[in-house]
Write a structure and sequence with these properties.
The complex is a heterodimer of chains A (289) and B (217). Chain A has 289 residues and is an alpha+beta fold. Chain A has 10 helices and 4 strands, in the order H-H-E-H-E-H-H-E-H-E-H-H-H-H. Chain A folds into 2 domains: 177 residues, no CATH class; 96 residues, 2-Layer Sandwich (Alpha-Beta Plaits). In chain A, helix 1 packs across helix 9, helix 2 packs across helix 10 and helix 9 packs antiparallel against helix 10. Chain A is elongated. Chain B folds into 2 domains: 122 residues, P-loop containing nucleotide triphosphate hydrolases (Rossmann fold); 69 residues, no CATH class. Chain B has 7 helices and 10 strands. In chain B, strand 9 and strand 10 form a beta hairpin. In chain B, helix 3 packs parallel to helix 5 and helix 5 runs parallel beside helix 6. Classes of the chains: A alpha+beta (289), B alpha/beta (217). At the A-B interface, helix 1 and helix 8 of A face helix 2 and helix 3 of B.
Chain lengths: 289, 217
């Protein structure tokens, strides 16, 4: 227990003993976490945008005139079983007549003397899938029904939106992974700088019989503390920025940036903990014989 | 206690020791003398297993250099105290913390550490200076602090590598006497020096090394 307290206190004291390098390490963690946190917030809000856009995807299925309404209802119910379909809405001839009236302000019965509008159905597709939604299999399946006369959809737009979304996800993931690797590299180099100034300590510890774990422990504790302080500062900046930024954005665009504070802090803390341990341990290992 | 059996070690750029056979007994005080570059430091490094022999083996009690693991070397060093010419004190820690460090490594509790450091400081004549930092002490005081650090864990042997190299003759003489006191308490001492005048006539064994080989043992 005394050994653990000693190692812990050494880690804490080292923060103060090596003020300049501690500052460099904390600052590089802080910068990384601000970038990583911003990426997380952007991707969270991108999900909202893509869900909104996907909500607007519409597939309209028109049925042949001679199909009885009971059969149409059966077919529409079976559409819900198709993979990728979220919901369906049946539009009867009467519904279509009402929609026509609300859209054009005219009663179609008065115009042509009968209701020529076909029975149709709106098919909504899933919106919360992280993977690219491929609409073609759904369209092909819908067209395979003999009761279906025509299928209308915004194929090209959907394809473009989905393609851009996938590219965005890939680029964001790549940036995040790159940022994490750069941080591990930066931290391990920063710690290596602190170790150059403490080579004498490491050598002395080795000469008096300290194990590798004993020598490494204060450096790792110090690294975790750097990460902890970096996390607090980055979280404060991001959350403060979001609160302040949201006020402005709401007043200008009536849109709010969505974020989950707990998730954000947990994620930043996790990243900093991970990079501090890996970076610190990697740097000390190079100096141990 | 310490046995070097047919030990050889050659550095990449040349120099080192060859075919060393010698033993140090428990409680022995021995001087290792020889000119600069004769292999004294290499021999000491082989004993505390900072270097491992390329030929032969070093045996210290139950520790054999043949295939020894890093963790076992750390354990061995807890039984060996070391003193260097350039002190190896940590400048950012006061005397108390410098001397207490070996005890933290072993895992002593706080109260024991306080008592043992006070005892060691008194023994080397530095009581009252526990709050001083190394740069606030004279060379002689720093080297006495090194003796305190080496002896505090009750080692079986203290290896001293030119401990008087930076000291004036009077302080050097006092240091040798201090190590004699430590030796009387049961710790073996092996002290390397190139200054024959300093060690002659003290009644201790002298091991002479030249060009990497033992000439007199």
């Amino acid at each position: 227990m005394d050994k653990f307290i000693f190692l812990l206190s050494e880690g804490i004291k080292n923060l103060w003993r090596n003020k300049l390098t501690s500052f460099s390490a904390i600052f590089s963690i802080f910068l990384t976490l601000v970038i990583a946190g911003s990426l997380v917030i952007i991707s969270q809000n991108t999900n909202k945008v893509i869900e909104y856009l996907r909500d607007k995807y519409k597939i309209e299925v028109f049925f042949k005139d001679n199909v009885p309404i009971q059969k149409v209802e059966e077919v529409v119910a079976s559409f819900n079983q198709i993979k990728g379909v979220r919901s369906t809405t049946l539009i009867t001839k009467n519904d279509a007549e009402k929609i026509f009236k609300s859209q054009f302000g005219e009663d179609i019965m008065n115009l042509v003397g009968y209701n020529p509008l076909p029975v149709s159905c709106v098919v909504n597709i899933v919106k919360d899938d992280i993977n690219k939604i491929n609409i073609n299999p759904i369209i092909n399946k819908l067209k395979s029904y003999v009761e279906v006369d025509e299928v209308n959809y915004q194929g090209r737009i959907i394809f473009q939106i989905e393609s851009y979304y996938q590219k965005f996800i890939r680029i964001m993931s790549l940036i995040l992974v790159t940022v994490i690797f750069i941080t591990i590299f930066t931290i391990s180099n920063t710690v290596r700088l602190t170790i150059y100034s403490r080579e004498k300590l490491i050598e002395s510890l080795q000469l008096i019989g300290a194990t590798r774990a004993f020598i490494k422990a204060p450096f790792i504790i110090e690294g975790i503390l750097h990460g902890f302080i970096g996390t607090i500062l980055a979280s404060a900046l991001l959350v403060g920025g979001l609160i302040f930024g949201n006020d402005i954005i709401i007043s200008l665009f009536s849109v709010k940036i969505e974020y989950d504070i707990k998730l954000l802090i947990l994620l930043l803390g996790g990243i900093s903990f991970f990079v501090s341990i890996i970076g610190g341990s990697r740097a000390v290992s190079k100096f141990l014989k | 206690m310490i046995h070097l059996n047919n030990v050889s070690y050659t550095y990449e750029k040349g120099g080192g020791v060859s075919n060393i056979n010698m033993s140090i007994d428990d409680d022995e005080y021995a001087f290792l003398i020889g000119p600069t570059g004769s292999g004294k430091t290499t021999l000491l490094r082989l004993i505390y297993m900072d270097l491992l022999p390329q030929v032969g083996n070093v045996v210290i009690d139950e520790y054999d250099s043949t295939n020894i693991k890093q963790k076992r070397i750390a354990l061995l060093r807890r039984k060996v105290g070391m003193i260097f010419q350039d002190y190896h004190l940590l400048d950012d820690r006061n005397l108390f913390n410098n001397i207490a460090l070996p005890l933290h490594v072993i895992g002593y509790d706080k109260e024991e550490i306080v008592d043992l450091v006070a005892e060691a400081l008194e023994e080397v004549g530095l009581d009252g200076k526990e709050d001083h930092f190394p740069n606030e002490l004279s060379g002689g005081e720093q080297q006495r602090a090194c003796v305190a650090r080496a002896m505090i864990k009750g080692p079986d042997i203290i290896l001293a590598d030119e401990p008087t190299g930076n000291l004036d003759p009077v302080t050097s003489f006092e240091l040798i006497k201090l190590l004699e006191e430590v030796n009387k308490e049961g710790t073996a001492i092996l002290m390397a020096s190139h200054n024959y005048n300093l060690i002659k006539g003290r009644g201790h064994r002298i091991i002479e090394i030249q060009d990497g080989t033992v000439r007199r043992s």
